[in-house]
Amino acid sequence: MKTTLYTVIALVAFAANSLLCRMALAGGYIDAWNFTVLRLLSAAVCLAGMVLIYDAKVKHNAADTALYSNETGSWRSGISLLVYALCFSVAYLELDTGSGALILFSAVQLTMIGWGIYNKERLSTVQWIAFVVAFAGFVYLILPSATMPSLFGAALMAISGIAWGIYSIRGTACVSPLRTTTFNFIRSLVALPVLLLIGVSHINSVSLIGLLLACVSGALASGVGYSVWYLAMPRLKSTQAAIVQLSVPVLAAIAGVVVLAEPISLDFLVASTVILGAVLVFILSKKRNA
Question: Is 235 exposed, middle or buried (0-12, 13-18, 19+ CB in 10 A)?
């Protein structure tokens, strides 16, 4: 139950991030560079505050404190997080929603499932079928809104997907999700001076609404959401974590209907049912013995 709860909360956070990014960038409230700066910075500040509060509560237990204090993230994870966030924001302006999602999640799937197979995570026949059906449903959902992407935008979005796949995989060995995520975000700020220099030239495009959307995306949907994702990752196989993320576009689309009053179609209902059903079958199916 805990694994399911953590996973669902994380997926909802991912969908919220997608919605907030769409509202901020597509709405013209902020540029990609400043959005990325504010997203990373607000996440780091929010999580740092949470860690300080949590630190005060674990000091009474020396063993817990020693184990907890050793978790300081890693540069690989921090750089992966930076690459994902920056490439996603910049590529978003180069691609339409359908093309961007198709490239992003395809890259995530290939990265995480490929790693899972490399580590001998064997799938049953039913799971392979469920994966194919879920991905087919995902393509069916996204393809109508996809157009021929620019090479630059497609390359950036593919890199973003690979970076996110790497970041997710590295969460499988996480001991303290909150502290690890906090330090990963702090490490991602290594490029902040460069991003600020570029962002200054776009400062006129930053509105109060854009600033608020970026900070909410960073502090809550990214900071808290990624911490919960790192709670779930040690409990999931890489293949499982990859497959469940195919539900994110569905959740984001539902959020768009509820929050932005976007229209809902029969194609969306069919694709959503197929994706969510196949994901459920995949999770409930047992893997073959190695």
Answer: middle
d(CA 251, CA 206): 28
User: Cα–Cα distance between 245 and 159 in angstroms, integer?
Assistant: 17
Q: CA 244 to CA 14: how far, in whole Å?
A: 12
pLDDT at position 289 over 60: no
At 20, is the secondary structure helix, strand, or coil?
helix
CB burial string 141-166: b at 16+ within 10 A, e below: bbeeebeebeeebbebbbbbbbbbbb
Residues 65-98 pLDDT 10s: 555 566 777 999 999 999 999 999 998 888 777 7
Q: How far apart are CA 108 and CA 214, in angstroms?
A: 23
CA 36 to chain CA mean position, Å: 14
What is the distance between the alpha carbons of residues 149 and 126, in angstroms, rounded to a whole number?
Answer: 33
